[in-house]
Automatic annotation (TrEMBL):
Keyword Transmembrane helix attributed: yes
Species of origin: Leptospira bourretii
Chain segments annotated as transmembrane: 307-327
Keywords (A to Z) from UniProt: Membrane, Transmembrane, Transmembrane helix
Designated name of the protein: DUF4899 domain-containing protein
Amino acid sequence: MPETPNYYSVKVNLRDEANMVYTMIAAVIDPVETKSVKFEGVSCTSPLSLLPVRSTFQDFYNRMQRVIYKGEQQKNITKSLQELIKTKFGSESFLEEILHYMDHNLTDRLDFVFSEIHKRTSGNTEPKVEIHFELIDPSEVSKTTVDEEEVAKKEAPPPTPVPQASGFLIPADKQIVQFKFQLSPVNGVPLVELKAGDNVYIRLVPGDGITDSIINTLELKEESGAIKQIPAKIVNISNNKNFSEVVIKINEQIYGKIIEEENSVKIKTTDAQQGAANIIGSVASPTAAVTKAKQNQKLSADESFHLMPYIIMLIVLAIGMMTIFVIL
């Protein structure tokens, strides 16, 4: 039984430092049948994506697939590159040419061939070419020496902590508004240094029914459309490494809750002796406004009732005068 012929494995790195284009090309070629068994190519912007050319074909192939999967390839250049190498490695004359160069170890000619591929896809610049080719057994086509999963784990950023609720519950009968802190980069107090009982300035953020209603009731919207800042009192604050959960109270009826992911920001504070309630407490809540309107309506009705006898007397007097006028 004849032995299975060996394949050529060729790996190429093309470094175009001027244009920051870094290209990987790899192919497995059957020299007996003069055909391509497998090939791939990709161009990216980082030289860190390149593997040493003495890596295996499968190492190159896996790395190129990961670059594409992560979206790190230069899409237009990679598309042109893949179309060109598909044509090249599907051409018997091209394969015969590079097989001849590999059989005779003509590396300078191979450098020229792949440099021309780069120029046709990435611009008319001369890249630095790194190339390695070797004969491998067909069973070694899938051989790997680089664990891409481990590489991906090392490159992955540390997980971002998910904000956790502090456990503080706003009473169910209170209204909850959306807000943001009023920042003061120069004179403000870092959020992580604030504590329950501190007074700060906030701005309500319109967008939901409750917040919009309170903005209108408190007349916080200026003619320009900007929302006025108002004082509020911190009733609970829970600080974590990178974020803070804060509950504030505008008055006895209106609360707000926010998770601030930049807890190093400086917040504008109010006079501790003044307190939030001194300003907002004099402004009626939406419920109080409705109650006051009803009271005004009731007062008007009572006043009308007390005037009724005088109106009747005037009507009787007018009728009497008209009767006298008719008799005369």
